Amino acid sequence: MKELQRFRQFLNENKFENKLRTDSPGFYREMDDSKNDIANSFVTYIKHELDGGAKTGVLKPIADKWFYELVGYMMGKGNEAVVTAGKGGSPSLKLILDPKSQDIVWRKFHSWRLVKENLAGMKAGKFNEDDRYETLYVFSPSKIEDITYGEDDLDFDEIDLPSGKFTAILWHNSDLQVYAANSKEELVQELEEDFFDEGEFGDFEGLKEAANNSEPDGDSNHGIALFVDGKLIAGPQGGVEIYK
Questions:
Q1: Count of domains for the chain
Q2: Is 105:98 a contact under the CB 8 Å cutoff?
Q3: Which one of 2, 66, 98, 211 is separated from 73 by 20 to 30 angstroms, measured CA to CA?
């Protein structure tokens, strides 16, 4: 908590604590300047998009040394990274790596608060059998043995949960996706931009209502489980089981 408070103070006052760099962007809590140079190269490469007002984007693989170094750095950090703002006015960014395609999705933070880790390190999963996919399981990796149906060799999908104060998990018989954000507005925006229609929910209360009325099926309807600060606040009745 103290580290987060210090980081917020830095963002508000444009000062570094713990000897973090101030002259250019860098990775949050990274003390190695050579690693922070990678973050700076990334921000420099997408500067034209940032200057154009883009809030999110996808960086496809490019044949530059810094890009391969960035991929390696992110793989060592669970395929996620946070780039802090520099003096030049660059925003704080969240980066998510697809290790297969090596695409890097980046998003601006919609507030000056760092994404809070709540469900980070946990997983979400579901069985794929026609009579079993209705239930979503959110669990610590050490608790997976507690999720049983008394049968062996059942097809079970699972996904790592990223950090985020607000988290939405979507699933049905053949799909499992997760969205995490630092604010209610950002989560609603991400869901409407990436998955649902624009204006589908209107606001966070609309999203909560949709989650409570959601029901996964074998066609196209998804169940929606909504978490705030790691606590389930909305979802299909009886459709989410948590093992911590």
A1: 2
A2: yes
A3: 2
- Whether residue 17 is contained in a domain is answered as yes
**SS3 of 196-221:** CCCCCCCCHHHHHHHHHCCCCCCCCC
Quote the tokens at residue 8. Answer: 């917020």
Question: 176-197 pLDDT, tens per residue?
Answer: 999 998 899 999 999 998 888 8
In a domain, 175, yes or no: yes
Task: From residue 49, give the alpha-carbon distance in Å to each of 9, 33, 52, 90.
Answer: 27, 25, 5, 11
75 and 167 part of one domain? no
- Domain of 75 in residue numbering reads as 2-108
Contacts of 58 (CB under 8 A, 6+ apart): 103, 104, 105, 106
Would you give the distance in Å from CA 11 to the centre of its chain?
21
